[in-house]
């Protein structure tokens, strides 16, 4: 595409966070250091020729969105934008990322973040107060918090004490389900043992539901260090293809340059207890539970290039529907979503552990 076509703004859109337009006057205090830079580009998920670095060699005053948001960048020293540690610290201290990058925020009073730069001492003194209020503020804008005005309540199919089930936006296949903790937590592996018992009941019910329809359940969770609200994706695959899931996962892992840790269990409870021990909060983590009880897990290193949609992409490839790897290609209208959810609730009612 030409530069003009790329920059053309479709109607009814909001400003992209990747639009790296910097107003120098607003960023004068932030961009003190000359740091690394990053180019934010789309690349094939399993191309691992590019390695991440914590610093780059960007020139000019434009800041790298990736570095400010996550502290790292997939383009490393080839990035064309600055990796400004001061801006990263300001963002970690609760300053709006749009304000840092563009010098302004179009959300105005609806934004839950600060629109002024903090002094060095303020960052530490406000940390505790910010952490206490973060959960409440984020739950107001979180798609998965039941108390949030943004929750898609028409997709909910069952609600328990600690977890609820819902159909996803843009399902990969029919009967694709999300199991979501009611608590605003970044991982299901850090929640209480009591809540874990309810989760296992949900999982076992869904497995039986699929088995009655000639399918097997594949469960996976991506736990990013930047995750806000956890969710486990449960995807039914035809029984005839279930045995191939492990092979295609291993093949995709090999292309990315890592190997899964594999362990087989007789029940989900034992498997989750093992996962709790494997999980380190200091790293991102991915695991998938296969149909025969085997769990594949991988702890993602700081500079490792791991696609957030790994699980969905692998299953889309297995089912010969690569065009559905992106959920946005599968989005449905609200009326159709509501109809699907009501139909699923009706069929799942006898197995629903909350009935």
TrEMBL record:
Keywords assigned by UniProt, alphabetized: Metal-binding, Zinc, Zinc-finger
- Mark the C3H1-type zinc finger spans by residue number: 58-86, 90-118
* Origin: domain of life: Eukaryota
The organism of origin for this protein: Salix suchowensis
Region labeled Disordered — which residues? 116-136
InterPro entries given in the database record: Cwf19-like, Cwf19-like_C_dom-1, Cwf19-like_C_dom-2, HIT-like_sf, Znf_CCCH, Znf_CCCH_sf
Looking at the record, the residues that make up the C3H1-type domain are 58-86, 90-118
The family database entries (Gene3D superfamilies) matched by this protein are listed as: HIT-like, Zinc finger, CCCH-type
Q: Does the keyword Oxidoreductase apply?
A: no
Per the record's keyword annotation, is Cytoplasm included, yes or no? no
Protein name, please?
C3H1-type domain-containing protein
SUPFAM superfamilies given in the database record: CCCH zinc finger, HIT-like
